[in-house]
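Why does residue order matter? Because the sequence determines the fold. Keep that principle in mind as you read this record.
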Amino acid sequence: MLPPEAFDREGFLHDLDSWSPEVARQIAAGEGIELGDEHWEVIHLLREYYSSFDSSPAMRPLVKYCALKLGPDKGRSIYLLKLFPGSPAKLGSKIAGLPKPDNCL
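Structure:
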């Protein structure tokens, strides 16, 4: 469990290397989300995207990447909104230990 000072005021990690599955569970719990297999699938995909493109995806690229990697049923905003309510790109990136996507408020 990381101390509060490990996060910025919006709850994103200061040090991306301090992320772990346990930290993801800690962040998700703070957002009222219990992580299931579907969440982990998207979290791993977000981390793969960041590793490939050196940035967190905004919503549209996230949807397209999910469709490409996970198939058309999971590459839909409605699917991602069920897993990560509000702003899937922002919330998913936060839980995945990544920086806030550039164009997210």
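The chain has a mean pLDDT of 94.
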